[in-house]
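Ligand-bound model needed. zinc ion.
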Amino acid sequence: MKAVYYPEPNKFEIRDIPMPEPGPGEVLIKVRSTTICATDMKVFIGNWPGGKFPHTPGHEWSGDVVALGEGVNKVKVGDRVGVEVHVGCGACEPCINGMYNLCENYGNRALGHQHIGFTVPGGLAEYCAVSVKAVHRLPDGLDYDQGAMTDNIGVALHAVERTGLRAGENVVVIGPGAIGLLALQCARAMSAGKIVVAGAGAGDAERLQTALKYGADEAIDVLAVENAAEAIKAKFDGRGADVVIEFAGSEPAAKLALSCARRGGRVTLGGATGPGRNLNIDLSVIVRGHLDVFGSVANPRWVSARGLRMIERGDVDVRPLMTHHFNSLDDFGTAWRMTHQKEDGAIRVMIHP
Ligand SMILES: [Zn+2]
Ligand SMILES: [Zn+2]
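Prediction:
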């Protein structure tokens, strides 16, 4: 079968590789919609803890179940499924508490852990075999493209829920990429008060327009103002927001997130999932600001399933994120370039293998 293949860091090929076989507790899926995000770059350059080469990436995808491994009864052949990428070992304390995104046996496939597209082969391929624990049957109203957002909606929803958002609270979302735009919609669906979305520069201009269309009350380009934190605070009577959610992944974005919360506010930082970003901030911003600061990585037990229901109900619309489509894995190189250069307004470039 055809697959994207990284032989070593910073190199990819489209290659014929052996068709995977579903082991016990696994399902084989014919991939129908699959895409790329900024995290794939961290894997590609070898800056992902637990990542190995050679590797087949792909962690945002959906498809049809075509074969079952031993002991699988949760789905059947022919089911349409979306894939959530963290599969915990199931035995460590975080896993037992449903926090399999924090599994203490990360990267240990023999103990049952899989991080699909990171530590085990992913869905930028014609077929992929994954643990049945990773799959969610797609609601009838959802197509494969919407299903490919199974993991993303979980990541966004979990980050919003980390803050304990209450109805009517004011929210800032920093970083209008796919996850930021989903977090915005989740906050809106959960009855947030005023929502301001912040982006940085011309590359985000179109995304800020999308944010306004999908529930943001105001959008701000932080590079176009002298003091971004003050400019954002000014939109909340100078106090700052109750809740700030960051999905930009840069140091300035994280610093801004901490600086535009109101005193006593809550901040979730979700963008910088790889190592190497250092925060240089006056600590009194956090201490005197009396902030609750949360890190949020991925999504634990059943958050994606709830997210899929929000998509099904129309509370969250994932379609504006899917800006381009290709019908072959041979177009991976173009899709890769478009995604990372944000070419032609690209947010998610969908590939249909
Ligand atoms: Zn991703
Ligand atoms: Zn575990």
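The two ends are 10 Å apart (CA to CA).
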